[in-house]
Every structure is written in structure tokens, then in C-alpha cells.
């Protein structure tokens, strides 16, 4: 029992680590509207002004302001850093200066080296030679084990975006534990966990070593916090400390892990308990409560990692995926919207729209109407929110889960995932037709069989071929993932994040597919129209399509059923192959911005799509083919079963404001009803953009006029200006649901 | 029974309250010179579908449209296929949906009686208050429309009126006062929607090889629209939507 816990309802959480129980026993649901919210404090305004200047400088220096090339980034590699000491309420920066990026080496030396040189810097030669000669990295580990077959699939983009040269991310530390229990208690629990090991074998030895590393990370965290003047050994005693403790725990992680997605969890009901207690004790005002949240968000918006320009092609806009989930219901049937949920969203008004943090609304039918309307209002104003189906996920993850990256659910502090990027199943169809040869260069990338003969494509024959090749690809895919995560655990273990998990953690292995709508429409064309292959030098390079066929995205079961079959087949096939650490196979239909890259490396497809043309993002219907209105498009996406795609089904919709109605009040209602309808129809995820196409075209030509224009792409938000021209065009060419 | 359908739009926020699915029926007796849907003019064209097929198609959208919205049947002039229309509306009512019919009012009272029971809202497009000009604009008289609105008032059916803003034809001070006093005289009108004309359908006309008699008209600028709206609000208050 700590003195910091005074005035809180006790329960199981006060005997053992159980953040969920703490929240459920203490939080206050809020049913009202946004009228209580406060604007930014003077300190926040001043601080944010300085940050905006810095952000402008960063944008003008090619996207990276500065890099510390002389140190290996670790929890304690840098002295404390400040932006504006006088106005900073929440302290802590990754390095000693704002927006100065540290270099993370354990993921891969080559990546770090390339990233430095891409921005005109050179990695300190001592560090370079130390890592070349004395310290193997994750990247070295993976490539020392990869087989020739895997390298070939990687090279020819059947498997892409694999986390074999960079940090895998997608692990969410339960940062709340630091605030609730203090670090010393967490350390004592970890020590207890490994006190009694009966047999020392490969598994238990590895676990003991990992927990030892976790404890060391927690000790390092305390040292780092002390350098800012905070004693994290004990629990947080008030709201300000709770925000500060939580942020420092997250900061420790992003200091030393350059992971692909670094979500922050589910914190608003948790923090609200501290805020409510302070408000009740009259030691905090509403303005100060908002100030804490505003300043916390400012810090999150200033987090940076060093990546290569290559990486940005796949994941544009320098994203961190600092995903925070808001809302949702608990298992007792009460909603989890609190005043701090509103305060968190209010940062979009107080600080303006921005891509980070990646704000994710856990939608339920039963959320209070006033909250739904407030979210809709913010979506219409900022296009900065994404929505996910809480009623669907609660069945799998309970009521204390977070979202890693864009759409990956997991119980906080209890579950993690091995991130696996994705395979290109549209390209796989072409490889299957070509008897294992890749269609662009004719390279044999999978075992050789006959090329499909020069005759009408028969659906059953083609499907059988696809199935056979999918099986082989899945085998390689699982093997590849096993190698990657074995090596990541070995050379770039996320010691601080895992210290904020139960020692006995459940693991998912998250596979993914790209090109679903292209594959579905291709198969539908083969089934319902007449498709004949066109050959060049013995390879099928194009198709003649005679007749029309139903396309995915129009609520037409003839096409949509194929999408359902494909995802069910894929997860079933993946599950045939054993995973590293007995992790549970999951599947996502998500592309981020990589749909443009995948398209670039895929030849002409039987649906009539031209070679190199972008795929649709995530689970979206192919651009321009969903012509029956937005509900029909949504109905098609809703037929993809979440039970087969437990790692998420991403759908991005772009609506013009006038489509939603003539008046502001009506627009909020219409968007709310669209979200209700979609999620009641078992849709999993929706990115909502409310934009005029003309504004995007204008923004492409005149970026200076739209410095903060934020749009949602598959699973996250980006500043429009940070996309490549190709990606911008892709966004503009996507189906805009509008009306004459 | 079977009817001729031009298209089914799954989502609209502009054709009645809440989210609507809209069924566009084929056939129209009018030939408004600014028509945006010339593809719906012919009666025996488009998809030939059973009413049950259409109802099933729309019912797929129930989760989106049942809360605050419903289904709107438009055209063309939907009352051209009055028995089919009546069957559709009856079907939608039994699905528990709010129903609206979007009509030019060019329909006999006898036909209107067939659908009034199954229609929650009539959206009536007042082509022109002056019968002579109405005939020039649409090719038909406005007497049916006036009679229909009288009938609907007697029945106390909810009505939304529409007026397309056409430069020089429906936007003068005189016309605005005239239509406003007419609207005020009807007790069952919930709103008056002003639809500024635009030439966005020009491409459709080209594709269909039709002569676009509307091309001389430019789109309205925002300032002019604001002025018109202000005047309408002075006369009719909150009922006016633009």
C-alpha cells in the first residue's frame, strides 16, 4: 500500500499488477458534451509556437533537422533536453535537443549508416567499426540465416516490407504500470517471476536472460527520469506526475527502439482517475488539466526516429504510429468515455490537426450520442481520426486492449505481436499462372510447373493453381518470419517494452496480404467474363477481357464472396506451418502507403489493371470500381470476416463535405450514422477523410498554402505535404464519394 | 411485379431526412431543359427488376438507414410506374423503413391515392409557379402539382418542397415573394430546398448525343446565392435550406 494511492478504491489491483482492475474500480464515465473543455494555456501556446517553428525548420531541411551521429541511442545516452524550460510542463526529450534524432544500431548497421548519409551525415567511424567488427545486429543475424529461396521472394517483391533491416515495433509497453506502481515494485515483481526455475533448458534460460535485461532497462529508466528530477521508483502521486511518469516510460522506449510502430496504448480513462482526484481535492483546475494533456501531446508530436528514404516509400510521412485508443465499452456494459477522453481529442482544436498521435476511436453502438457526434465533428474538421469496432474486438481482447500500429489489437501488458509486413497476393496469381515465374523479368521465384496454356482461363483451374502456389508461399513466409523474430529477440530485444508486460506474455505472429481487391476482381473477371492470356517470350504478360464482370465494392456477392474465400484460405494455409515461440497466426488486410510500391512491381492483372498501377489501399475496393455509393462499398468490405483477419481489415473512405449534407449539424449526424451502420455490419476499421478533391489538387501544387493538411491513409494519418508526388496522385485518384 | 429501374444509389444525405438509399425509376413525362438525369427519360429502359429484388437490395443497407434515414424513390418521375411504385413503398414500409417519394407533382390524384398511405414524406419539385412559364420550362402544365399539394395538405402528409434556382426564371424578387407566400399558405410543408442550377451534367448530354439546351447557363457564384438565401429566410425563416 503506497501513500500515493490515497483516496482510490482498492481491489485486486492493489495486491498485484492489474491496471485494468484499477481503472474499472475507479474511473468516472462522462455522458456530457464538449462544452466544458478549455482552450490552451498561455504556457502551451508559447511552447507550441516554438515547436511549430522547429517543425517548419525540420520540413525545410529535407525532413530531418539534425542527427546525433556520435552516440548509440539508449535510454541514458543523452543528457536531459528541453524545448523551452519556462513553458514546459511535461519534461523529457529523446536526445539533448528537440527534433535531434538519435541513431539506433541494434536493428541494423547498414540501415543506420544509410540513414545518416541520406541526410548528408556520416556515422561516427568508431561506432561504425565497433558494430562491424564486434557487435552483430538483428539485420546481420537475419541475413546469415536467410535461404536463397527467401532472398529471391524478397528481391522480387512477393514478400515485402519485412522488418529484417529495421526495428519490428508493434509492441505496446503498458506504460501505465510505471505511473500506478512505480518502477521499484515492477522490478520486485519481475524478480519474483523468475525466482524458481525448475529446469534450465533453452526456453527457461532465454526467459531468465530476457527478464534480467528487462530489470536492467527498468533501472536505466529510473536513472533517466532522475536526470529530469523525477523519482520513478515510487508511484505517481497526482495527475501531473501520472502524465509525466507515463510519458517518461514511453520516452525510454522510443529513445532506444526505432520500431516500425510505437503505439502508446489506452490511457485516457487511466489518467482521468488522477485528474478527477486532483480536481476533487482542488489542487488542479480544468485549465491545468487540459494543459497537462496538451503538453503531453506536444511531446508525442516531437518524437522522431531515423529512417532511410527507402523506408519512407513504404511508410510515408515519417510515421511513428503513436496509436492511442479512446472510448470503447467495458465488459460490464459501461462506456469508457471520460472527460480526459474529451481533453485528449480537444488537443486537435488547441494545437491544430496533426498525424500524431494516431488517434483511434473504439466505436460501439452504445457509446454516448454526444461523444459520437463530437468525434464526427472533429473528423469533418480535421480528417485526423480513425475508428475501430470495439463491439467486435472486445470479444477477443476484453476491455483493456490497445492497437499496435493501425489495426492490430492486443491486450495491454499481456499480449504482443511479431510484426510480419505482407505478401503480394495479386502478384502471386501472376506467378501461379506462369508456373512459378515472376511476370516482369521471367525469373523462377517459386518451384517450376507448366505455364498456363494459350486458352480461355478456367476459373477452377486457375483457383487450384493459386491455391497450390499460396501454399508454397505461406511456407516460406512463415519460415521468413520465424527467422526475423528469432534474430530480433536475440539482437534487438525490446527490454523496456517487455518489462512493462507480464513475464508470461502471449504472442501473435501477424501476417499480411496486399492486393486483395486486385486479386478478387481478377478472379471475378475469370469467373464471370472471358479472359484469355497474352504471351510474350513464353510468359503471360497481359490478358484480353471479353465481357463485363462484377467487381468488389458494390455489395455484389458474386465478387465479394471471393474476398471472403481468399482471406479464409490464406489464414488456413498459414496455420499449417509452425511459428517461432508458438505464436498465434493472425492476418491483416492493410497496406499503409505501400499500395503504390506493390503496384509498381506487379504486372498487368486479369482485372484489366495495367502494370505498375497502384493497388487500392488495405481492404479498399479498387479505385473507381465501387460505383454504387458508399454504403454498397462498405457492405462489401464488411463481408471480409474479422475471425479470419484478426490482425485487422483496413478501409479508408474519402467523402466530400457536401455529400454528408447541407448543414453542420446534419453532417455530424450523417457521419455518426455511417459509422454506426458500418460497425453494426461488422466492419472492423475505418479511416475517415472529409475533403474536397480540389483542395488536394491545390495542395499538391501549392504546399505552402496547406502546411497542416492531414489526411488518413490505410491505418494512419500523414501530412499531405510529406507524401511523394506519386503517393499524392494515388490519394487524389482514389474514389471520392461525392455527388453532382 | 416488375418495373424499370435506372439505378440504385446506396447512400444519399440530400434526399430526405438522415441517410437515404435512393431508387431511381425510369420514365419522365417532363423535359425540363436543365434536367440532370436525361438517362431516366425513357420508360422502358434500364434494369427490369422485380419489386422484391429492389427491396432486398435496399434492405442490405438497413443498418445504415433505419436509425434516422430511410429510402427515397426518385426518377425520372416515379409515379409514371404507379403500381410498381406502390408495391415498392408497401414493401419498404413492411421493412420498417421511412419512405419518401421525390416527384415533380405531375401525377393525378387518383394515382396519388394509391401511394399516399405508404409514403411518409413527399418531396415535390415546384418547377414554376407560373403555368405558362412552367410549360415552357418543362413541357407540361403545373396544375397537377398544385392539385397534388392541396391533396397532401388535406391528408396532412409531410412535404418538402424544392425549387431549382434558374437565373432570370426563379430567382427574381417577384418570384421569391410569390413562391414564399404560396409555401406559407400550406400548413404541411416542413422545408423548402433551393437547388442552384449547375452545368455538371453537360458531359452526360454529350455522351448521350443529346442537345444540351442548358449550356448557356453558368453556375451561380456564392455571393448571389447568399443574397437569394437571405431573402428567402426573411420570408420563410428556418424552413429554407440551400
Brief account:
The complex is a heterodimer of chains A (740) and B (242). With 740 residues, chain A is of the alpha/beta class. Chain A is built from 26 helices and 18 strands.
Descriptive overview:
The complex is a heterodimer of chains A (740) and B (242). Chain A has 26 helices and 18 strands. Chain A has 740 residues and is an alpha/beta fold. Among the domains of chain A are: 3-176 and 238-418, Anaerobic Ribonucleotide-triphosphate Reductase Large Chain (Alpha-Beta Barrel), CATH 3.20.70.20; 183-234, no CATH class. In chain A, the strands form six sheets. In chain A, strands 3, 9, 10, 11 and 14 form a five-stranded mixed sheet that branches. Chain A has a five-stranded mixed sheet with strand order 4-5-6-16-15. A two-stranded parallel sheet of chain A has the order 1-2. In chain A, helix 15 (369-382) links the parallel strand 5 (358-363) and strand 6. Chain A is globular and about 80 Å long. Chain B has a single domain, classed as TIM Barrel (Alpha-Beta Barrel), CATH 3.20.20. Chain B has a nine-stranded mixed sheet. In chain B, helix 4 links the parallel strand 5 (99-103) and strand 6 (121-125). Chain B starts with a strand and ends with a strand.
List the helices and strands and how they pair.
The complex is a heterodimer of chains A (740) and B (242).
Chain A: H1 19-26, H2 42-60, E1 66-72, E2 100-103, H3 109-118, H4 125-133, H5 138-145, H6 148-155, E3 159-160, H7 176-181, H8 183-193, H9 202-227, H10 239-256, H11 268-280, H12 286-301, H13 309-314, E4 323-327, H14 339-350, E5 358-363, H15 369-382, E6 386-389, H16 390-397, E7 401-404, E8 408-411, E9 415-419, E10 422-424, H17 425-433, H18 459-491, H19 495-499, E11 506-514, H20 516-528, E12 530-536, E13 539-546, H21 557-574, E14 584-589, H22 595-600, H23 630-638, E15 652-655, H24 664-680, E16 685-690, H25 693-701, E17 710-713, E18 716-719, H26 725-733
Parallel strand pairs in A: 1-2, 4-5, 5-6, 9-11, 10-11, 11-14, 15-16
Antiparallel strand pairs in A: 3-10, 6-16, 7-8, 12-13, 17-18
Helix pairs in contact in A: 2-12, 5-18, 8-9, 10-11, 10-12, 11-14, 12-14, 14-15, 15-24, 17-18, 17-20, 18-21, 20-21, 25-26
Chain B: E1 2-12, E2 20-25, E3 47-50, H1 51-59, H2 62-65, E4 70-74, H3 82-94, E5 99-103, H4 109-115, E6 121-125, H5 131-138, H6 143-154, E7 158-165, H7 173-185, E8 189-196, H8 202-208, H9 222-236, E9 240-241
Parallel strand pairs in B: 2-4, 4-5, 5-6, 6-7, 7-8, 8-9
Antiparallel strand pairs in B: 1-2, 1-3
Helix pairs in contact in B: 1-3, 3-4, 7-9
